[in-house]
What we know:
By secondary structure, the chain is α+β, with helices and mostly antiparallel strands.
Amino acid sequence: MSVNQLSDSAQNYLKIIYGLAEWSQEPVTASVIAGKAGMKLSTVSGALSKLRQQGLLDHAPYGAVNLTDLGRDYAVTMVRRHRLIETFLVQMLGYRWDQVHDEAEQLEHAVSDFMIARIDELLGHPSRDPHGDPIPTAEGQISIPQAVSLTEITDGSQVQVERISDDDSQLLQYFSDHGITVGARLSIQQGDAFSDTVEVASPKTGAPLRLGQRATSAVWVSVIGRAPAGEG
């Protein structure tokens, strides 16, 4: 059975399960999947049972959900489609990075493997999508950049943005307005005591920005050094 023989719903569940585990060590549970998918827990539990019967995942009642080897192969195929389509929309059709997620969600179920291969070739086989997420190769290989959440960065660090979650389009617009995009370099200073904020200088304007947890939890960075004394 090929991934095209799975229902759109099954394809979505596999992609969601893979995505939840890609940047987190936390167990993927039915309730977490339900929250991500915006669906009732009972609906998700029924869908997971069907996927387990198809040999696509392991799931004990009230336990963590894990993809089988076959399930992971299908999930990676859908992730590859989604991220290549997003990259195509940005690079070739002029979409903004905050506009592509929903479009890719629709198109990924309709495209053929041949079309995806042609898109990949046209784009020069990109390794990352517009948000910094790694794009699997045609063989299913994937290289995840060494990065941590901005919430874990200590005061005085200089970092490079590696990935920004595309879950919140308004937040993506905000980041874009201030030049916080993949590849941008930031010098980190902690905000006021008990404020749970981080202060950075806007890469676009140089103006100080205070980022709360909603923002910092969406940004993944690699540490490249220590900021010069006095720099924010």
